[in-house]
Specification:
- This protein has six helices and no strands.
- By secondary structure, the protein is mainly α.
- The chain has one domain: Serine Threonine Protein Phosphatase 5, Tetratricopeptide repeat.
- The longest helix is centred in the first third of the chain and has 18 residues, at about 10-25.
- The relative contact order is 0.10.
């Protein structure tokens, strides 16, 4: 049985991902938290959750993105069944210096669903 021309060769996909990651590392300045957040989101969409977590951690170092990045990290951990790490990420996000009331509510709801009360 032969493969059709429009099927992706896994080796080609892996090579493209490696090239994307290499190019991204060269383009994203370490201090550019928004770029790290955007890259994390792209990695997450591609299913590269370990890379996404690493980039969200870098983005979370910026006060303006700490809450949102913490929320995203927690959601990844929850999806992976890593409840303790999810709770840790969401709790850290709640202590971020800059967060919107809707974000606070969402974090509290997530924590409550996982058996943690913020009262």
């Amino acid at each position: 049985m032969s493969t059709s021309d429009d099927e992706d060769d896994p080796k080609d996909v892996e090579a493209l991902l490696a090239e994307f990651k290499r190019d991204s590392e060269q383009l994203v300045r370490p201090e550019d938290a928004q770029a790290h957040y955007d890259l994390a989101s792209a990695y997450r969409e591609m299913g590269l959750v370990d890379d996404a977590l690493q980039e969200y951690r870098l983005a979370a170092q910026a006060p303006a993105l700490a809450c949102q990045a913490g929320l995203e990290m927690g959601q990844i951990h929850a999806q992976r069944g890593e409840t303790a790490l999810a709770i840790e990420a969401w709790t850290a996000a709640l202590s971020a210096p800059e967060r919107e009331p809707t974000m606070t509510r969402k974090l509290c709801e997530l924590l409550a669903r996982h058996g943690r009360s913020m009262a």
